[in-house]
Amino acid sequence: MRWGTLLLRPWSAGDASVVLTALNDPEIALWNASAVRTVEEATDWIVRRADWSAGDHVSLAVVDSLSGELVGSVSLHQIDHEQGDAEIGYWTAPAARGRGVASGAVTALCRWAFLQLPIDRIELCHAADNPASARVAAKAGFTQEGRLRQSYRYGDGRKHDELLWSLLRGDLPIDS
Description:
By secondary structure, the chain is α+β, with helices and mostly antiparallel strands. The protein is 29% helix and 34% strand.
């Protein structure tokens, strides 16, 4: 799947060292619950995300197609086929921040999901103290719906308020 110069592809074992470095970046570690400390743990992280057989998640590596560099991650999780809902999550490697990588990857995966899956609503939650994620959500076309008080324990061990955003199938022009 492509979006501009971004390529969204399945995870591979060769991504482990980049995943290890990225998930230990202070910004990613603060706002992401996935801690890995060794290449083996990073490989396990990849194996879990590469297995879509349960049908409850889709996780992809985000690659700069010009350089071949792995620059992030984007995932749909908690996919509920009966209710037609899912949640989206992402992270961006430090060197790729501020270049539209996260918003591009989120937009691409949402468009794919609305075309390929029986869902009509995608939610995005992020810590209220994370303004970069608010910019990603807005740029990707999500609508802010509210604030969830002390709803999630982040990497600092504290429960943070989260902002809830949603994107509905009809919010994006979808080319079939």
